[in-house]
Amino acid sequence: xxxxxxxxxxxxxxxxxxxxxxxxxxxxxxxxxxxxxxxxxxxxxxxxxxxxxxxxxxxxxxxxxxxxxxxxxxxxxxxxxxxxxxxxxxxxxxxxxxxxxxxxxxxxxxxxxxxxxxxxxxxxxxxxxxxxxxxxxxxxxxxxxxxxxxxxxxxxxxxxxxxxxxxxxxxxxxxxxxxxxxxxxxxxxxxxxxxxxxxxxxxxxxxxxxxxxxxxxxxxxxxxxxxxxxxxxxxxxxxxxxxxxxxxxxxxxxxxxxxxxxxxxxxxxxxxxxxxxxxxxxxxxxxxxxxxxxxxxxxxxxxxxxxxxxxxxxxxxx
Length: 318
Fold this sequence. Notes:
CATH topology: Triphosphoribosyl-dephospho-CoA protein
Strand content: under 5%
Number of domains: 1
Oligomer: single chain
CATH architecture: Orthogonal Bundle
Number of strands: 0
CATH superfamily: Triphosphoribosyl-dephospho-CoA protein
Shape: globular
Number of helices: 15
CATH class: Mainly Alpha
Largest sheet: none
Helix content: 55-70%
Structural class: mainly alpha
């Protein structure tokens, strides 16, 4: 696909990522999470729809910055990836009253948006080139980007933050220390990568997204042609192999591993493709759907959105 202007390129990228968010939240039943047939008391399906619309312009802006990098107008360190994330989170919060719906997704998808703009401005889209550019974008993050991401996280106020051993988000002195010691955003996420899969994706160039989720999702689409089944099964596949760090922070790694084991059992029974698999899946969903959301695999949902995003960028259409 050829685009006649940077505006068209950025609009294309934005639509791809917005569609990824919409398809992921609509897939059902995703155990323990909001989807089109299940709400939380305070966060409902429509809150996610509103959030997807709210953040789309920020993905467009991110892609425009990527085009500017590819044309030499700015350098990768000038993208302002932290500001993109912060402003997207602010819009997410303004457009709905369901709380933190997309923080993890915004953090994962923003570098992808920039990288996609870089690729499409220069050549035909390729997954390999996208991944290379994601690495460039992330490793070019500045101390100011780190401060902006801290602000974004505090605005979103996600559950299960706890205290970090270094540069704790809840310590007001952390941002001053980041700027004083010139700690980059990459270095901040490196600290967090030990206990957070989204941070780990950042510093390790998205191995769960590109190496586990994407090939599996693509294979399922080829075999079944059903995006709902492919999305739910990809969610289960990621959960089965990577204990959800949102759950681990709230109730411990042991419980997170137990839930991963149950996700594996659902897939082994056939998931949505068999009667016994469907029954087990609905039981699993009911079991981990609690009022406090301590067992909600929110990080897994964020990574699933990243999988959908690169698939749609690569040409998939429902």
